[in-house]
Queue: 2 jobs
Job 1
Amino acid sequence: MSDVLLSVRDLSRHFGGVKAVNQVSFDVRRGEVFTLIGPNGAGKTTVFNLISRLYDPTSGEIRFDDQVLSQKPAHAIARLGIARTFQNIELFEYASVLQNLLIGRHVHLPRSLWREALFLPSVRANEREARHKVEEVIDFLNLQHYRDTLVAGLPYGVRKVVELARALCIGPKLLLLDEPSSGLNVDETRDLAYWIDDIKNLLGVTVLMVEHDMSLVSRVSDRVLAMNQGEVLALGTAAEVQQDPRVIEAYLGTGVAP
Amino acid sequence: MRTLFKTSYDQDIRLFEHSGQVFWYGLLLLALVAAPWWLDAYPLAQLSFVLIYGVVGLGLMVLAGYTGLFSMGHGAFLGVGAYTQALLTAAGWPFFITIPLAGALAAAFGVVVGLPALRVKGIYLAIATLAFCIIVEEGIARWESLTGGNVGLMVQKAQAWGWKVDSEAAFYFLCLVVAVLSTLVVVNLLRSPTGRAFVAVRDSEVSAQCMGIHLARTKTLAFAISAFFTGVGGALYAHKVTYLTPDQFGILQSIDLLLLVTIGGLGSVHGAFLGALFLVTAPQGIAVVKDYLPPAIGQAPGLQQLVYGLVLVAIVLFEPRGLYGRWLKVRTWLQLFPFYRRGLFKRQKSYQKSERLR
């Protein structure tokens, strides 16, 4: 078992003439929190969508756990152990929180139409088992209060947590978080930082994250990759990357007086 | 008001949430079983119709209400089920084989129609299924050697082992058994992983995929299950109307069925039966009221369509969850009296989705 969990090599995705992601390469090691930063339109979310196979790469290769991801269909990704959240929350609105989380267990539940139609004891046992796993996540993220609430009636901050919970229900090896702190207030962001630490240390899940809030980034990340206009600018610890002249230039523009 | 204290996971898996529900559904079942003894022949026949449309509605509810795929072609599945039933019964097959077969054949058609559903969405899917509906109607009309074409096809009484379902009460019991079994199967599917996958596909295809749900397989399955129950309903429908012609299974029928699930309440099993109740009783109600209206209105052609249209508009505007949604509010009002607040069922503002990956 190699040290590298996710390996991205020369990955490109072009939309017509726009090179959203251009020749990007990086490795995510097991057990680290790896963050992508960059100004708007840098291609961070596109990298996420390429990893979760919602987009096909124009060229390049993604390997996960020694398997080539770029040849798998989108629905096979969860089974391999990759879970993700979305920048603008993609929950199942008209289902309860509990049902949302149970869908997270989908890949682990055996399905047989006949058994389900008759609701045989085996189906019931599987449901109990799934519920057991879901409850662990509910306890982990303190969602007890919202179990039976319809997602459509939840405040934004809670939805973010529910989405994180649903991703954890998959039981992933790699967790992709797309701007987890956007729209959260200061308290919620602080909770999030603790959870990300716990996800890494207690659950042993590797985290790949896109984030703008630099205080959160420096607090939780082991390594940071800065992108701009689809290309890699710098890679290193949060402090190193923040000092990099090219990163500063990308954020603040050129021609800063000495 | 009842406050549930949950002590085991089974309480969320069980069919009934609490003993009160067991009581009320038991009472309903008892009343339905006893119906032939307390109802006259005509209301009983209408009740059979409600059950038949209820089964058909269940089928469409799985597709439109739970998977979010709107079909304008369910009249065709009804037709496939009805003609299969009529022909097999004429060939002397017993009903307990022909009814599932009618469903299975409709399901096979459903898989075929489900294929375009993998590529088109929303209004385009409606158009594709509408085209299918017209093709089937036309096919039935042209295949005269088998279906009798536009002249029509006489349906014989259902039978098994020399026992003929010829009385109104016997047919009613057949409908009741089929309706109860269908409801159980649908409810079981909806509370298991397959049903959750349907809801996931309805609410967000992107994240359904990321949860490992195979979109194509799930949608095709939804179409097959939906068509199955519509076909089963069609088999009973054939015996009910006793004479089949292709125009019974055209666009108007399909629209009636969509009306049924929308008025009943999309996304609820109860809604299928409430919608069926509406669809069967509304014409009767209109017929009664007609005589008291000024002749210019009462005798005007298209009164029924006008009423249907107005009800549909009212439902869409004021009660998107249909009759079942209204019932939930009434029930809550009764339970909480006098503390019901008007805003109780108001949803929070929905958050904008700017980055939907279609």
Job 2
Amino acid sequence: MVVGRLFRVFAVTAALGFVAVAAMAQGENFITNADFEDDLWDPWVSYGPVTEDISKKADAHTGNAAMMATIPEAGANFWDAGIQYKPDIFFAKDTDYTWAMFMKADVDIEVNIKPELGMDPWTAYGEKRAQLTGEYQEFFTEFNVGGADVVPASLTLHVQFGKAVIWLDDARWYEGGYEPFDGSGAPQAVDPLDKAATTWGQIKSR
Amino acid sequence: MNGMIARLGAITLAATLSVAASAQDNLIENGDFEGGVTDPWGVYGDATLTLDASEVFEGSASGKVEVGAAGANFWDSGLQYNVDVTFTGGQLYTWAAFVKSEGAKNINWKPELAADPWTAYGEQMLAMGPEWTEYHIEFTPDSDVDPGSLTMHIAESGEDFWIDNARWYEGAYVAPTTTAVDAEGKVATAWGSLKSR
């Protein structure tokens, strides 16, 4: 009986510990409106010739909506049009970050992923190119801005490589290295009393 | 009689090699850096260009580009070939070069208008490595471009790199061909001579 109770306590503790570790591993998603389920772009913004829209469910990666951006033509340079997440954000010094998102397009086209200083000279951190296709893929960049905070900051996508419709969904920006998307975009706490570890503990205590 | 046919065949083979080599007229001068100077190549930003005889893909020299430090943006320094460069609208071009970098390095290859707004034509960010490798891009400007520039943006990192055997020509990419040789006195001709004896 005592052994069974101890085992149950152990199982609950282990489950809580697992949840805590899992949450720490993926980190808090700093992006609000990461899944566009409110049918809004805000606080995402665009500049240049980008038509802002929200997709129908069929074009969502998960849920019922995704960001939809129409670019009418190639720019003189790819950075002539962009999509940005920059609602008073900053990058803290000496901090590892990951910015990840799912994207697809109606044609094969590049997107330039650029965490940057939100003002001239638009200093780049972890800048990368993504090759979009007709199927959703998760793209990410890991970056660390070094010994000084970056204020203001911007998570910027340069999109004027050519004429295209681009969809974006399930964006994440968090502290730490890349972790695969877990289906929700954020760590989910679980009730340990319903979970496998607890059940196993109950069996063992019988 | 057989000897005459064999010799004729050898000369024809040599002529074929010559045609293959000239199929893509290289519009770049001093693409192999064998001219004893780095001109007409140039750099801007925190970078220097020198001849290097110790790291070559072929011949006796390559161009060594030393990058002082990573820039705030990858275009903050560059290597350019932009003397008397123009692009014809609708014309397919290939720009290729052998490159070797100290370590992993991304270089932005950008055929462009050599004036504001520096319009890009077929630019690509290519990943270089520490082994001599030929990289290339193809591009077709939608209109005439004058002045033009073959620009490599190199400030994504502070890694140095070397460049050799650069080519820019009309048409799609073709792997480098065997260098044309003088038919007289070469293996094919010698073999033809032997066969004719």
